Amino acid sequence: xxxxxxxxxxxxxxxxxxxxxxxxxxxxxxxxxxxxxxxxxxxxxxxxxxxxxxxxxxxxxxxxxxxxxxxxxxxxxxxxxxxxxxxxxxxxxxxxxxxxxxxxxxxxxxxxxxxxxxxxxxxxxxxxxxxxxxxxxxxxxxxxxxxxxxxxxxxxxxxxxxxxxxxxxxxxxxxxxxxxxxxxxxxxxxxxxxxxxxxxxxxxxxxxxxxxxxxxxxxxxxxxxxxxxxxxxxxxxxxxxxxxxxxxxxxxxxxxxxxxxxxxxxxxxxxxxxxxxxxxxxxxxxxxxxxxxxxxxxxxxxxxxxxxxxxxxxxxxxxxxxxxxxxxxxxxxxxxxxxxxxxxxxxxxxxxxxxxxxx
Length: 359
What we know:
Blueprint: H1 3-7, H2 13-24, E1 48-54, H3 59-63, E2 80-81, E3 87-88, E4 91-92, H4 105-112, H5 120-124, E5 130-131, H6 138-146, E6 148-150, E7 153-154, H7 161-170, H8 191-197, E8 202-207, H9 215-218, E9 238-239, H10 240-249, E10 255-260, H11 272-288, E11 295-301, E12 327-330, E13 338-340, E14 344-345, H12 346-357
Helix pairs in contact: 7-12
């Protein structure tokens, strides 16, 4: 079977990712920015895995002009066609508050344009081709320089928030392509089903003021609230104060999900500085705690929000992959100042959890 035949086979996303890993000779082992870590779970120094996911930013919008992005950054002379024979070039956003451009299934597919990646401006206009740089994202750029930035990490789907959030917790969107799902509606297996089966402790901490007290407040940002089995589980509703308390007491669970409310999620039109400041606060608290020496934090974004990215995502099935999104690997074991080119997407985080804890 030649490569073109193999790539056109209809098969599950996880199987395709597994085979891609075999072809690459790597797969998602502990290579995701983590070095010198044993593969044997019993001797692995990573005792705490934390997952944080912000909203609606592409790699190029946030890190396309990172000085060390190299070949993963925005190419020199890059532009988008304006639909009338002209060219539109990316420009620096002057404000930390940007318009919420369309990022529906239909709009993202129009931007993608069957892999040509040339429909961003014609679909969403000028607001979709702005970018931020080090002057705006000083803390995030410092994390990239001190730890690992993934330059080839994609969201799950060419679509909006909910399908991509579902994939981050379950490895699939279940065929969903919209945000029109209600709490407690779904019933397929999630990563926390496996964690409970293997007695791995976990909690969701809701960051911000007044978040996480009701299931309806979690819908969209914590995909577990969409599942009948988990919507009423108290582990979904820990507050930010509980996170700091557990860090201070040395009782952080083995797996932590950090959930931000809308005002600090970086979802347009929220001020990105509010989100950056909150993430700095929670990451700094982790670094100052006893858990830090045994921790790995994966910090990503759910989907691109309609903003531009120049890299065409591999198409593995009817849903994607989606556009590239930022992913930072923050850990004492992370490679310093490293930009990883290994191919990843949201279910790669689940694969890391499965391998680390022998699920």
